[in-house]
Amino acid sequence: MIRSAIIGTGSYLPEKVLTNFDLEKMVDTSDEWIRQRTGIVERRIAAEDEASSDMGLEAAKRALEDAGVNPLELEAIIVATITPDTLFPSTACVIQGKLGARNAGAFDISAACCGFIYGLAIADGFIRSGMMRTVMVIAAETMSRVTDWTDRTTCVLLGDAAGAAVLRATTEDRGILSSFLGAAGEYADPFLLGMPAGGSRMPATPETVEKRLHFLKMRGREVFKLGVKMMPEAGLKALELAGMTPKDIDLFIPHQANIRIIDAVGERLGIPKEKIYVNIHKYGNTSAATVAVALDEVRRNGIAKEGDNILMVSFGSGMTYAGTVIRL
Ligand code: ACO
Question: Which is nearest to 324 in space by CA: 285, 284, 292?
Answer without folding.
Answer: 292
